[in-house]
Write a structure and sequence with these properties.
Blueprint: H1 4-58, E1 69-70, E2 78-80, E3 91-96, E4 102-109, E5 115-123, H2 134-141, E6 150-158, E7 161-168, E8 179-185, E9 190-196, H3 202-214, E10 216-218, H4 225-235, H5 252-255
Antiparallel strand pairs: 1-3, 2-10, 3-4, 4-5, 5-9, 6-7, 7-8, 8-9
């Protein structure tokens, strides 16, 4: 038989061994948890790194950004003063860009709804690209391909100052082509462009464009006082549309200097 002291010693030894075993299990469990959490953290870091590389994996093309959209609730900001009461009203479209740009576009159609003329007033926003060739957008406005080469076709004098004219390269001199036009203003950032197929001769088409621009008026400037100032100053230089008395409003001295591809 074991003495009470021996039994007590054995009990203490067993308890100690049990505690050691429990401690080992706790330490082992904690070690597994640390390893598990570490593995999760590693996977998370790798996942984030992979996500950071996704744009490169998809290619160098930027993601599509919202572009121009029709602003049906916006009110026209410009108009053309009428020469006579029988003149037809043009279609009026307003386009807006998320980066602040706005385009007011007036269009006229002839027989069989063929495009006859177009006038676009573009108030530039953050989307405006100064590196984009002006001929590209103007050719598209004229119903031509973006790659169509244009040549300068002189200047006309308007209330906004000299306006450059353009036409497709290789146009038969005996057959007047539709003329494009472009006028840029830095302050405020404004671009007036369009085209006209009105008139049976080149001088008549030049005069028609000048008449259109001289009749352009501002209805509302919104929160753009510099726009109102621009049109107020332009009105001081406004002239009538006396096509009979001035069949060609071309600046003769400047015309000879404006030739070649755009």
């Amino acid at each position: 038989m074991h003495s009470p002291e021996a039994s007590t010693a054995v009990s203490h030894t067993q308890i100690h061994l049990t505690l050691l075993a429990i401690a080992d299990e706790v330490v082992g469990t904690l070690a597994h948890l640390v390893a598990y959490v570490g593995a999760l953290a590693l996977f998370a870091i790798l996942a984030l790194a992979a996500l950071g590389q996704l744009p490169e994996l998809r290619g160098d093309d930027p993601a599509d950004k919202p572009g121009w959209s029709t602003a049906d609730r916006s009110h026209p900001a410009f108009a053309l003063s009428r020469i006579d009461s029988a003149e037809k009203t043009a279609s009026y479209t307003i386009l807006r860009h998320p980066e602040g740009g706005r385009k007011d576009v007036m269009r006229w159609a002839g027989a069989a709804d063929q495009p006859l003329a177009e006038l676009e007033i573009y108030r530039e926003g953050g989307e405006f690209d100064v590196t984009r060739p002006v001929a590209m957008d103007l050719a598209v406005q004229m119903g031509l391909g973006a790659a169509t080469a244009l040549e300068q076709a002189g200047l006309i004098e308007t209330k906004f100052g000299p306006v450059a004219l353009f036409r497709p390269i290789g146009t038969d001199k005996g057959t007047p082509a539709c003329l494009g036009y472009l006028k840029r203003n830095e302050e405020p950032a404004l671009q007036i462009s369009g085209f006209s197929c009105q008139g049976d001769t080149l001088p008549a088409r030049r005069a028609a464009i000048a008449c259109t621009l001289n009749r352009l008026t501002l209805l509302t400037s919104g929160n753009e006082p510099k726009l109102a100032e621009l049109f107020a100053h332009a009105e001081l230089k406004r002239r009538g549309c006396d096509l009979a008395g001035s069949p060609d409003w071309l600046l003769g001295t400047a015309n000879a200097q404006l030739r070649g591809a755009l």
